[in-house]
Amino acid sequence: MINVDHDISAADLAPAIETMWNLSAAKILAIDAAFPPGSPTPVVTREGLYQPQGWTEWTQGFQHGSAVLQFDATGDERFLDLARRRTRETMASHVTHVGVHDHGFNNVSTYGNLLRVALAGRCDATPGELDFYRMALMASGAVQAARWASRRDPGRPGAGYIYSFNGPQSLFVDTIRSGRSLVLAHLLGHALMGEQDEKISLYGRFVEHARSTAEFNIYYGEGRDIYDLRGRTCHEALFNAKNGDFRAPSTQQGYSPFSTWTRGLAWAICGFAEQLECLPLIDDADLEPHGGRDAVAGFMIRAARATADFYIERSPTCGVPYWDTGAPGLVHMGDVNARPAEPFNDHEPVDSSAAAIAAQGLLRLGSGGFVDRSDADRYTQAGLTIARTLLSDAYTSRDPDHQGLLLHTVYHRPRGWDHIPEGRAIPCGESCMWGDYHLRELALMIQRAAEGATIPAFFHAAVPDGFRAGGAS
C-alpha cells in the first residue's frame, strides 16, 4: 500500500520540478535531432537512446507535445517554435488515421496543447493558426468516433465502444483517455456525420464508450468471476463482433486477463478523473439520452474511485507499481507492497510510466469535488507522494547522455520489447515516450497548483476559462 504523505504540498515539490525541467530541455532537443521529420517515431530507449518499436504510431504526439509542455512550464520559446513546426510537418497523418484508437494521445497532445496555451494567452497566435488547430481537433475527434462497434444491450440502443487497432471485437481500457479527442471536438461544436446526413453526437459516443469501459474493463467486487476484486482492470474486453455480446476479458500487454496490467489501471484512473472534471461543461441536453447528468457522473465516479483505491492499496509504498499485479516472478519477492519498489530486482520490472499516469489521475480526482473531503485528501496526497518518488534521483534521469527523462518504464513485457541491460535479469533503467510526456504533464499540474494558478486540462483548448456551460450543475 502506498505510504501516503499527508503533509507534503505542491510547493514542496517545486525545487525538484525546476530541476526536472532543466533536465528535460536538453533531452527534448536531443531526441528531435535524432529523429527529424520522416524518421520512424521514437518509442522506447535502449541503452539510453530512443529507438522506434513498430506496433502502431501512437507516440509521436507525446514527442512533440512534450515541447509544448516545456514551453508552457518555462516560457522558453525555442520549444514553442519546435512544437509548432513539428506539428505542421509530421502530425497531419494522425488526424486522419482510421486504423487506431490513439487520437487523444497523438492529436490532443499536439494540436490540443498548442491551442490551449494560445487561448490561455501564454503566446501569440494568429486567427488562422487557431483555426488550423481547431480544424485538426474536430477532424480527429470525428475520425476516432467513426471507429465504432455496437454492442448488444436491450436497455441501451446506442451502446457500443471505440474499438482498438486489434479490430471490432476489442475494447481497450487505454482508450478511456484517448477518447478525450471526441469530447474536445464536441466542445468545439463538431459532430460526426453519417449516412443520409445523420448527425451523430461525439459526446454521446464517448459516454457510451466510457460506460462500456466501466462495465466490462473494470471490476467492482461483485462476483463477476472468482478474480473479481474491486478496482481491478483487464486490458481488453472481447465482444462477439457479429451480435455485440460480451465474451471474455483479455489482455495484450498484461500477464493475464485475470490479473491487472498496471498501466491499464492508470489509464482508467486518469481517463475517468479528467472526464469528471469536464462534465460540468456538457449541456444537460447532451446527457439526457444517456440517463442524465447524475447517471453519467455516477458510473464515472464509481469507476474512478474503484481503480484509484485499488492502485493505492495494491502498489508498493513509494507508489511505483510493478508492471502487472499478477506477474509470476513476484511470488519470489515476498510482500512487494509492504516496501518501496525495487527497479533492480531479478524477477519482475516496475513500470514508472504507470505511476506518472496514475498520479495525475489521483490529483484530478482529489481536486474536482467528486468525493468527500477525507477521500479527496487521500487521493491528492497519494498523487503528490507518487510525484515526489518520480522526481527523485532514483527515477528522473540526470545523465545528459540518456535521452529519456523517466527511468524504469516498461512497454510490452510479454513480447520482450524492453531492453535488459547486460548483467541484469529484467528490464530497468530505460524510458518511454509516454512516460516522459506524462511526467512532464504531471509536473506542470503540480507547478500550477503551487503557483495558485489554473491546473491545465485538455478541455481548456475549447473552454479556456473553464466556465460552466448551459445546464451544468
Q: Uncertain runs with pLDDT below 50, 5 residues or more? A: 467-473
Look at the structure and give the mean pLDDT: 96
Instruction: List the domain count as a whole number.
Output: 1
Number of strands: 9
CATH architecture: Alpha/alpha barrel
Helix and strand pattern = HEEHHHHHEEEHHEEHEEHHHHHH
Strand arrangement across the biggest beta sheet: 5-8-9
% residues in beta strands? 5-15%
Q: Can you tell me the overall shape?
A: globular
Characterise the protein shown here.
The chain is mainly alpha-helical. The protein has a single domain, classed as Alpha/alpha barrel (Glycosyltransferase), CATH 1.50.10. The chain has 15 helices and nine strands. It has a three-stranded antiparallel sheet, covered by helices on one side. It has a two-stranded antiparallel ribbon with strand order 1-2. Strands 3-4 form a two-stranded antiparallel ribbon. The longest helix has 21 residues, at 14-34. It starts with 13 loop residues before the first helix and ends in a 22-residue tail after the last helix.
Task: Note the topology.
Elements: H1 14-34, E1 44-46, E2 49-51, H2 60-74, H3 77-90, H4 92-95, H5 103-119, H6 127-145, E3 148-150, E4 160-162, E5 170-172, H7 175-178, H8 180-187, E6 192-193, E7 199-200, H9 202-216, E8 236-239, E9 246-250, H10 262-278, H11 284-287, H12 293-313, H13 352-367, H14 373-390, H15 433-451
Antiparallel strand pairs: 1-2, 3-4, 5-8, 6-7, 8-9
Helix pairs in contact: 1-2, 1-15, 2-3, 2-5, 2-15, 5-6, 5-8, 6-8, 8-9, 9-12, 10-12, 10-13, 12-13, 13-14, 13-15
